[in-house]
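4.2 Preliminary Data

To establish feasibility before requesting continued support, the project team ran the inverse folding procedure on a target of 271 residues. The structure was first converted into the token representation described in Section 3, and no sequence information of any kind was made available to the design step. The complete token record follows.
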């Protein structure tokens, strides 16, 4: 009999084990919801499935009486646009600065302490400052994402650049490669899959900063809608929105993972 540490699940088993916690949570919710609604039919804390269905139909499939737009679609597009711009800019800055600090000792000596200090500042603590400097528009929300995740990306990519074996760098120098050639032909290819992994790890924080910014100053967005309806204890809207955010985050993470596996199979084979 195999020891537990050596036993692995097959494809079907992995799917079953992965879905099992969600099934258990759903069953527990249904039991708790039925119990609360039996005690108080007007209870709003744990709505019934029919309440969820009505809310989803109203938010996703019926145009708003005020604007004529589909609320869930408008909120989703607004949030994804902010998230996409913020993460893309952060990834670009993280890539450039991470390679520079990891490959060039003089650059690392001048920039690395600043990046380390910035990474220790709670981004949500400077949110009021961002609103004062950049106003209540889109720029402040995007800047919060950038400030929140860029230092992490820089430090992670810097570490990966520093881990490149010195022997490889020496061999390229022996063959006559200059600094630019070493960076573009040796460091860059090894950093790119790490960048995708770092972006995947930072998505949770990016969503957190986005929701926080939208909750304070926005007229549309997933975070804005959640904090707008909380005053009415509209759990039938809040919980589906939270589930939708989770699904979007999972879909983005899955897409990045699949792209990384397709584009850099050697990186995942080494893990």
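Position-by-position output of the design step:
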């Amino acid at each position: 009999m195999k020891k537990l540490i050596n036993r692995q699940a097959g494809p079907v088993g992995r799917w079953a084990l992965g879905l099992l916690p969600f099934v258990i949570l759903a069953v527990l919710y249904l039991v708790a919801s039925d119990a609360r609604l039996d005690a108080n039919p007007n209870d709003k804390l744990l709505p019934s499935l029919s309440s969820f269905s009505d809310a989803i139909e109203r938010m996703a499939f019926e145009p708003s009486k005020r604007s004529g737009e589909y609320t869930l679609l408008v909120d989703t597009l607004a949030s994804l646009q902010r998230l996409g711009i913020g993460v893309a800019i952060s990834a670009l800055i993280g890539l450039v600065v991470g390679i520079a600090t990891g490959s060039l000792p003089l650059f690392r000596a001048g920039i690395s302490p600043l990046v380390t200090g910035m990474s220790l500042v709670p981004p949500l603590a400077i949110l009021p400052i961002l609103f004062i400097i950049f106003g209540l528009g889109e720029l402040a929300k995007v800047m919060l994402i950038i400030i929140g995740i860029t230092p992490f990306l820089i430090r992670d990519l810097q570490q990966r650049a520093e881990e490149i074996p010195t022997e490889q760098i020496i061999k390229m120098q022996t063959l006559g490669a200059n600094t630019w050639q070493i960076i573009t032909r040796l460091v860059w290819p090894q950093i790119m899959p790490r960048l995708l992994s770092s972006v995947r790890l930072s998505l949770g924080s990016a969503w957190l900063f986005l929701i926080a910014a939208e909750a304070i100053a926005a007229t549309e967005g997933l975070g804005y809608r959640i904090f707008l309806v909380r005053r009415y204890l509209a759990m039938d809207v809040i919980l589906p929105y939270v589930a939708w955010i989770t699904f979007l985050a999972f879909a983005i993470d899955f897409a990045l993972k699949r792209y990384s596996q397709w584009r850099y199979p050697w990186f995942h084979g080494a893990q």
